[in-house]
Prior knowledge:
Blueprint: E1 8-12, H1 17-30, E2 35-39, H2 47-50, E3 53-56, H3 62-72, E4 74-79, H4 85-90, H5 92-113, E5 116-118, E6 121-122, E7 133-134, H6 145-164, E8 168-169, E9 171-173, E10 175-177, H7 190-201, E11 203-206, E12 213-218, H8 219-231, E13 244-245, E14 249-252, H9 253-261, E15 268-271, H10 276-281, E16 286-287, H11 290-296, H12 304-322
Parallel strand pairs: 1-2, 1-4, 2-3, 4-5, 5-8, 6-9, 7-16, 9-13, 10-12, 11-15
Antiparallel strand pairs: 12-14
The structure holds nicotinamide-adenine-dinucleotide.
Amino acid sequence: MSEASPPTVLVTGALGQIGTELVSALRERYGSDSVIASDVREIENHPIINNGRFLTADVLEKDSLKAIIEDNDVSIIYHLAAILSATGEQNPELCERVNIGGLANVLELARVYDLRVFSPSSIAVFGPDCPDHAPQITPLNPTTTYGKTKVSGEVMARYYWEVHGVDVRGLRYPGLISWKAPAGGGTTDYAVDIFHHAIMSGKYSCFVGPNTRLPMMYMDDAIRATLELMDAPTESISDARGGYNIAACSFSVTELVAEISKVIDPFECTYSPDIRQEYADSWPDSVDDTEAKNDWGWTAEFGLEKLVNEMLTNLTRAREVEA
Length: 323
Ligand SMILES: NC(=O)c1ccc[n+]([C@@H]2O[C@H](COP(=O)([O-])OP(=O)(O)OC[C@H]3O[C@@H](n4cnc5c(N)ncnc54)[C@H](O)[C@@H]3O)[C@@H](O)[C@H]2O)c1
């Protein structure tokens, strides 16, 4: 009996912080030939380009996406191409164009070619009127353009499901912490940068204040959540499909510094808050992920202590290999 061939998967924005790790996970699962990584830029010697299929593609060019889908018989898209919060507030017009326009292209092609789509949302959908512990259903009044594009993305996802039957699913990722790729211009980047500086110099100047507390997640948990959501049977996916809350840990910068200091001593963190403090202050401290737990069995594995140990161990090892 011959086994069914794996689906062909296209990943947009594949050279970013999430794509770098998601593409590897997808290639392990479906085989390298079945996963096409794409991005608007090329990066020399990037492992995703070196270890499998890669195409340059701008998600704003619908015809190029269409050609890739047709030529390769694509059936699933992980749509990661976006402009993140801090970069987006510097160029709101580009942020709207890429985040909303790019998703519109992907969803329309998904409708025509009957594709399944993963489209990430973010904790940036919440605004100051959201409770500190953000429920799944709550007013979504973000103060940032980036947050507004993510609210629109959730609405578009629900519309394409309800009206056209396109199976689009998304997660409201918290700030993601990882060591393999640099963070991509978001407000929670401090929680990645701090590890690099702790190891390099034992010092970090943080762009948000010591009491800033945000929902965070180690990348391994985020990749697993993404795959588990996409694996879940359609009947288990509720109205939260456009953006499920998912939680792992929530900590202040002071708590993060204290945990790092247990391994790197002395470690000194100073504070010089900039505009990103305002974005952080408009977001909740933590999120309630009851729906994700009930609908598709989500549960996080990495708390603060485990996350800090993984980051310091892996980054130290990576630096030794490079040296
Ligand atoms: N990283 C996080 O902490 C986080 C948190 C919440 C939500 N998200 C969401 O997850 C998704 C991926 O985030 P990330 O952290 O990997 O971002 P990133 O900035 O690291 O990567 C995004 C990638 O998109 C590419 N890109 C930008 N414009 C493009 C275009 N026009 N066409 C094709 N590619 C383009 C960039 O070159 C980049 O490689 C985004 O939707 C983001 O909003 C990320």
